[in-house]
Fold each of these.
Amino acid sequence: MAWWSRQGGLDSAPKKSVPKGIWSKCERCAETLYEADLTANLQVCTNCGHHFRMATEARIAMSIDPGSWDECDLHLESADPLGFRVDGKRYSDAIKGAGKKVGAGDAYRAGAATIGGMPVEVGFFVFEFMGGSMGSVVGEKITRQFERALARRVPAIVFCASGGARMQEGVLSLMQMAKTSAARSRLREAHVPYISVLLHPTTGGVAASVAMLGDMIIAEPDALIGFAGPRVIEQTIRQQLPPGFQRSEFLLEHGMVDMVVPRVQLRDSLERVLRWFAGVAPKDRGDGADTGAKNGRAAGNGVDEPAGGDHPA
Ligand SMILES: [Zn+2]
């Protein structure tokens, strides 16, 4: 029988393949990694140290003390003031779709928590939700987070991972840069510390506002951090950009970030920085490390005034 007269076409028996979710391939060194090892190692390649993008839920869990998360402002929802459509799809539907897929709360989650027993107001960009783009809900949540930090006089921390402003909300998105920066400046006036943690990628309007305004700016290794894309810059300045441009290590070398910290050390580093801001001895010294930390106040050593200006007691 000729092959073209056979019923059912070619041999379509399913190929034996590796079940999904058991193995992952490293994007950098191409090593095949056991998913359970990758999870245990906080989504960092055990072979080359490449940092995979981490889901926000896991990021929250690794960053704060277990059981301390008290999330705020879950009810906020974006309006669609422009009646924005892209490819015939309404913006309001895209928001609902993202909410169904990722969970409610838009592209930012904020709340009260403790880190090493010290109270903080902490927020996380949700990159899974429309690329972590900053619209009016994200801006409002960050502003409220800073206002809570100010009222309680506890440090604010923002984990940034964003493609920038949300184009679907037009100028209202751009306004969030000014709004969040103004809220951040009130923290500075009151000497309440603000720490920003830059994850891959932190770009556009987020990089041009809250991300770069930390008293302490910490970045994960090899994260893309910048305002405009490299091609746009090259075309504007008509020069070729140096290798490693807009990556954490390049920014550290050029004084734009304070520390580049591997993910496995990030939580300990944060705790150390918080203790330093609070004027509390590091934990490993153990000399009354917990006393005075509970109120979480910025008792001294503010980086605003390294020459030893007047700090709130
Ligand atoms: Zn690797």
Note: Residues 26, 28-29, 31, 45, 47-48, 50 surround zinc ion (CB under 6 Å).
Amino acid sequence: MFEILSDKLSGIFRKLSSRGRLSEKDIDDALRQVRLALLEADVNFRVVKDFTPRVRERSIGAEVLQSLTPAQQIIKIVNEELTATLGGGESRLVSSARPPSVAMLVGLQGSGKTTTAAKLALHLRHSGQRPLLVAADNRRPAAIEQLVTLGKQLDIPVYSEAPSAKSKDICAHALTKAKELATTWVVVDTAGRLHIDETMMAELAEVKQVLKPGEVLLVVDAMTGQDAVRAAEEFHSRVGLTGLILTKMDGDARGGAALSIRWVSGVPIKFIGIGEKVDAFEPFHPDRLASRILGMGDILTFIEKAEATFDEQQAKQLEKKLRTASFDLDDFLSQLRTVKKMGPVAQLAEMLPGMSSLTRQLPEGIEEERLKKIEAIILSMTPEERHNPGIIDGSRRHRIAQGSGTKPQDINQLLNQFRQMQKLIKMGIGGKLPRNIMGMFK
Ligand SMILES: Nc1nc2c(ncn2[C@@H]2O[C@H](COP(=O)(O)OP(=O)(O)OP(=O)(O)O)[C@@H](O)[C@H]2O)c(=O)[nH]1
Ligand SMILES: [Mg+2]
């Protein structure tokens, strides 16, 4: 998601930064292109109509910072306004003073409610809470089964009843159960419909009255574009929402819905779903998404993930190496191994500056097979070669190929890839403009 928009915006800003002083016309030209890029990315026209004038006004106005070039100032403004459009700061779950806190998940059919209920419960448990899942979707027996199975997998209790039971009764009983089990959170999965209709809304209102939830979260499929935005407006006016969870943010939609939904509905995005697995779920950070879209990568999220996977010191070292772009093939290997531990290469690489364009060049299925080959090749090199791949000549290449059971072309390919990665990282972090940007948003 966001690749095309991100590429377009980086292109616009690169052109802008090649100029010294910027005239009003330069700014207007650039903003016209930004406007087009946003519209092409399916951003809601109301958002676009509001966004560019905001940026223009601040850009033309005398917001002069001595340390920045004019182009950098505009990028800074675009970044800030994009962050504001996405909601400004992080919007956390609100827990109630008297446990259990209740989160009721609502949404259209197939938006990801059941999966998200499990993801949210797991997230809560990771933050030290004791969640109870409730299967209040009695429209399909399979829905109950789906949640029960997920609960078993995660070892999180699920409250369910026979499909004949009424949703509001299930919910009332679930609250009693929660008290019995002394759980701190109750996460309720409700039934979805293909379309928003009266019966659905009436049912949700009934369930809401029983649960008195502190959080009513609309689960929306980010792949459905402006339909998702309309659903958010509608649900908010009919049921009253406290937050949004955008799912399928790992998809290849243009991302306009994700960019517009907060601004149009006025409801904060609290979490995003980024894959089918139960841990593919994170709190939403507007500032990080904004800088990711502007092609600055997302060092922060990356470091957070790295920290969760190994210890802080290792993560710091990795960050330093990435920042100074001084990493060699040994680091490349250990990074690939880490990436393997942390999740799909593509997903992670998107968070690194300049890396998303690299992963797009990689063939599908790089994960397992390629990683094994790369590992074998690097392990067949001497420490000196790993540190300084420049010394690898024809005869060394031959030796490494034999040692790793690969062909000399494979070695070349790897070295090219490695050099390209170094270059991209330099451009992304070590390069003049982006480095300033990184410093600017620290
Ligand atoms: N790629 C991706 N798939 C997701 C994500 N969240 C949910 N899905 C998939 O979306 C499909 C529908 O998910 P469900 O959780 O069953 O959706 P639901 O809203 O409960 O559906 P109904 O109960 O039928 O209304 C499943 O195949 C999920 O694996 C996500 O963040 N990324
Ligand atoms: Mg469901």
Note: The two ends are 25 Å apart (CA to CA).
